[in-house]
């Protein structure tokens, strides 16, 4: 929630794509038949220990170093090896959005103004070699994440910790370390922050908080065999995470870990596979694939259509809702989007039914009229300031255009990506183009290769006036949604800028700071929702839809748990026959 440095913001940009790939973020309400989070075809029988779980993925589990991973809630595969001070609650539904203790005895004890957070370690914590885990190891693990050669992790500590802005890591500090991380003894650790941060327990779930024994640190080679604090240890890491093999860490004590079930004896992660191949292998479930899952590959519209006629396959599909929003962004610095009535007209003209069809249909996307996702954890407050119904209201749009001085309509350009992602892609752009045409708005489509598209929409000097965009949160709260997009102090003029509207409203900035002070997360949620509703009145964006995840599992997979934090199957809970 603090102002991020230019480097940090570039890192955050990478995180959005990583979160999409791994599903390491929040999800929403389940379908009526999926309230338990477990699919009917994989829920039969009690889970049991033993066997090998196969993971079939498109993207490799690269940079398998806790300093370099950008995860939420500890991640999925990483959380099997790296324990952190806190973690996500490994339960279905809304209960899964809660922060719970992991290595620590509680979720943290703040001082009066939440500028200091103190944690105490549980008894009996050890590494895979049996040596005890200490708070000095956690301090060192955090400090090494500041080293340039280990960059890539979440940026928050660099901005939040006192002295973090200029710290370069333990390889260059001559053994001094960060003074803002105090370890008075082997069980206690205190963090001193630059400003109040009531959501610090969420950040303490990220892998930078995993302990690293200094004597075992091998720098950039540490990822090849990181020292495990979790239920599994790395026995093979080939081609930078393309083939990862995990086996039981016999020194892990389940009495200290209420969250991870760790049923399989072995986990075999195979990556670099084509999405269609992954789904075909899971569908067929031959041999080892019967006990297989994916942590990054969704089913597409065509595959869902085929599965819909097969009850057995349908019962093996897990449904999750990512804490994510796809939207149309306006840059009010560019005419005619400097006119609020033009932005309102476009808001009324949008046909969300056609947009959702372009996004893959109602099974893969749900309509949005709020910027915040429709989950309580984010502080969602229902509103629809420009009610257009399911098919848009072109008559109301034309009325507003006339008031704006465009009685004969107008012509504008919509910038989008050429990537076939069904979010910022040509299909969605075309649906927007057709809806606006009914309101007398001629839309020229500007399609850019994905990297060029991202560079342009995040460059404050060249931001288009009108473009497709998307945003996901690093943890289930309104803060990581609203602050990067609408806090005027986070506008970056010489780097990656996410505040597309360049909104710099002192009242909005002040409210963000006030909410950040709250350690009562329920109260903070209400305030985030109210702020979302207030900002929404300005029509600075048009929320379009929230994506839905549909992922298949092998026929012998049991205990499928899908929480409202991750939106996808939690690998730490899975059992195989």
UniProtKB/TrEMBL annotation:
InterPro entries: Peptide/Ni-bd (IPR030678), SBP_5 (IPR039424), SBP_5_dom (IPR000914)
Keyword match Lipid biosynthesis: no
Superkingdom per UniProt: Bacteria
The protein's name in its UniProt record: ABC transporter substrate-binding protein
Signal in keyword set: yes
Family matches, as Pfam families: SBP_bac_5 (PF00496)
Keywords associated with the record: Signal
Domain Solute-binding protein family: 98-489
Region (Disordered), start-end ranges: 28-54
UniProt signal peptide: 1-26
